[in-house]
Amino acid sequence: MTETPRIIAHVDLDAFFAAVEQRDRPELRGRPVVVGGGGPNDRGVVSAASYEARRFGIRSAMPLRTAGALCPQAVFLPVDGRKYSAISRQVMAILRRYTPRLEQVSIDEAFLDLSGTDALHGGGPRAAAAIKAEIVTETQLTASVGVAANRLVAKIASDLRKPDGLVVVEHGGEAEFLAPLPIERLWGVGQATRRRLAEYGVSTIGDLARLPDELLRRRFGSHGPELAARARGIDLTPVGEDATAKSISQEHTFDVDSADWQVLERTLLSLSEGVGGRLRADGLRAATIAVKIRDSTFQTITRQRTLPEPTDSTDAIWQTALALVRREVHGMRVRLLGVGAHGLTDRHQLALFEEADSRRRRALEAADAVRQRFGPRAIRRARLLDSDVSPPLERDHMRAPADE
Fold first, then answer.
1. What structural domains and CATH numbers belong to the chain?
2. Is-catalytic flag, 3?
3. What is the mean pLDDT of residues 306-335?
4. Which residues contact 54 (CB under 8 A, 6 or more apart)?
5. How far apart, in whole angstroms, are the C-alpha atoms of residue 219 and residue 137?
6. What per-residue confidence (pLDDT) applies to 309?
7. Could you tell me which of 158, 113, 123 has the C-alpha nearest to residue 6?
């Protein structure tokens, strides 16, 4: 008996942050818009760029100053996390009308498993077209959608005809669809892997698919055959149902690169407080704490440590972050610091030590309640009174949009 192929859709909102701003401010339509800071002289990075801005070479994660040099006439706007999060929830509610098997992977994209819904929605392509139409009607935003038999191919398909695209890859045609595409479109192929593959004449996904598995295993270890399987359009990963956050993080870019340990220490405390508050608000604890350090030359270091017990305590997060950063920053001028929480677990499954920590928890939750009602700066630790670290986005455990 032949197994019925899955129907997976990947829905990706087009230039999400910038598109929201252009929707809400008609005078910005048709103009290059950069979201991520107050101006081209800010020291942050681009969170999103409108398609008009991308024609000048502006991309997500680019320094704002570089973006300003590429397009001096661009309109620069700060990130409005609360607004974007509300619209994201509205879009996800639309997607759940089509299937409960939905996995939100970022603030602006999700996978849907539409298998077995033909009688309801008329098949994957028709459902995808209906989803796109509902998003436009209810949010005045466009989305690009890829439909295929697995996540890998659906994701690549959704990227091909942006903005407002719809690409359907028929079951059995995955390898043929992928073959002519540049190798960098394949998951798991970064700059280093691309350079190593180039030694074997690989420039397209089809070139990789034709290489013998044994050669790839010798060159890349166990990762080699995995790359070959992806190049042939094979991906058995299921779509998670209402996936919870995989991580929560907050970052801060300094106005002036700093080598002052007291400044770095205070910044890490503020970041840890933001991450801890988010964990407590979501009823989660983290098993692993990670830090990101970017120096004045834009070199980035990431380090992480798994804790003896999962935590949502600001102090535990801070002390771990301090230990990780202290070993790395000797003689370094730091441009950016980030603190992240990973390996998240439902707090209510971990109540063994709750009583021993109840007084401290009540104090933390009381402070969280004040911030929730009166704003993130309503109550602050004394050592953070001079800190200028911005509060976290409402949904900062979701990544910002990439170059849609």
1. 1-169 (3.30.70.270), 175-231 (1.10.150.20), 247-384 (3.30.1490.100)
2. no
3. 91
4. 15, 403
5. 50
6. 83
7. 113
- What does the alpha-carbon distance between residue 12 and residue 190 come to, in Å, rounded to a whole number? 21
Inter-axis angle of helices 314-326 and 261-282, nearest 10: 140
Q: Is the pLDDT higher at 353 or at 341?
A: 341
Instruction: Please state the three-class secondary structure of the chain as a single string.
Output: CCCCCCCEEEEEECCHHHHHHHHHCHHHCCCCEEECCCCCCCCCECCEECHHHHCCCCCCCCEHHHHHHHCCCCEEECCCHHHHHHHHHHHHHHHHCCCCCEEEEECCEEEEECCCCHHHHCCHHHHHHHHHHHHHHHHCCCEEEEEECCHHHHHHHHHHCCCCCEEECCCCCHHHHHCCCEHHHCCCCCHHHHHHHHCCCCCEHHHHHCCCHHHHHHHHCCHHHHHHHHHCCCCCCCCCCCCCCCEEEEEEEEEEEECCHHHHHHHHHHHHHHHHHHHHHHCEEEEEEEEEEEECCCCEEEEEEEEEEEECCHHHHHHHHHHHHHCCCCCCCEEEEEEEEEEEEEHHHCCCCCHHHHHHHHHHHHHHHHHHHHCCCCCCCHHHCCCCCCCCCCCCCCCCCCCC
| pLDDT at res. 87 | 94
Residue type, 41: N
Exactly one of 109, 174, 273, 394 is catalytic; name it: 109
How much is the pLDDT for 322? 96
- The pLDDT-based confidence of 146 (bands split at 50, 70, 90) is very high
More confident residue, 90 or 362: 90
